Amino acid sequence: MPLVVAQERYASGINGDVAGPLRTNSAGSAGAVSHIDTGLTGTFTNASNVGANMTTLTSGPVGTFNQAGVGAAGSNNGNCSGDNCRIGGSTGGASYDGNISGGTGGSSSGNGTPGGAGTRGSGGGGGAAQVTFPASAGASGSTDGGNGGAGEIKFRFIRRNA
C-alpha cells in the first residue's frame, strides 16, 4: 500500500500598506489525497523466519501500516491594521497526520525573514508583513512565504504468506 501525503496549498495576504488599511491574512487550505488503494492484510515471514502480522510494520513518521490521509491547513496569525502594522507569518500546515511540522512563519522584526520551507509534504511558512527593508532593496514591505515540501509515496514490497 503506497503512503500518499498531500501538500498544503499556498497561503495569502492582502493590503497592509503604510497608509493603514486592515491587512487580511488567510491560511492555506489542506491538501487532498487523490488515490488510495485497498490496504494489505494477513501475515508474512520476517527476517527471523517467523510469521508476523502485517500490522506489526509500524516504522515511519506515523507509526501505523496502510496509513494515508489529507494534509492539514496552516495556521493564521490573524490580521493587523493601522500605519506600519507588523505581523509575522504563520506556520505551514503539518503532514503525516501532524507528525511532520510545517515551515516556520517569517519574522516581521527589523528587515524581516522569509517563511521557512516545508518538508515531506508539509506546507511552507507564511511571509511577514510591514518589515523595514532599506529603499535600496526595493522597499516591498513584506517577505516571501516558504515553499511547501514535496509530497511522498512510500512503497513496501512484502511477500504475503498463503
Concise summary:
The chain is mostly loops and 162 residues long.
Folded structure, characterized:
With 162 residues, the chain is mostly loops. The protein has one domain (1-162). 0% of the residues lie in helices and 10% in strands. It has strands at residues 3-4, 12-14, 24-26, 43-45, 51-53, 153-154. The strands form three sheets. It has a two-stranded antiparallel ribbon. The protein is elongated, with a radius of gyration of 21 Å. It starts with a strand and ends in an 8-residue tail after the last strand. Mean pLDDT is 75; it is low at 1-9.
Layout: helices, strands, pairs:
Layout: E1 3-4, E2 12-14, E3 24-26, E4 43-45, E5 51-53, E6 153-154
Antiparallel strand pairs: 1-6, 2-3, 4-5
Which descriptors would you attach to this protein?
single chain, 162 residues, little secondary structure, two-stranded antiparallel sheet, 6 strands, 0% helix, disordered N terminus
Compute the gyration radius: what is it?
A: 21 Å
The separation of the N and C termini measures: 18 Å
The H-and-E topology, N to C, reads as EEEEEE
Average pLDDT figure: 75
Number of strands: 6
Assembly form of the protein: single chain
Which ranges are low-confidence, i.e. pLDDT below 50, for 5 or more consecutive residues?
1-9
- What's the shape? elongated
**Biggest β-sheet: count, sense, barrel?**
2 strands, antiparallel
The overall number of domains is 1
Strands of the biggest beta sheet: in what spatial order? 1-6
Binned, the helix content reads: under 10%
Task: Tally the helices.
Answer: 0
What structural category arises from helix and sheet content? little secondary structure
Which band does the percent of strand residues land in?
Answer: 5-15%
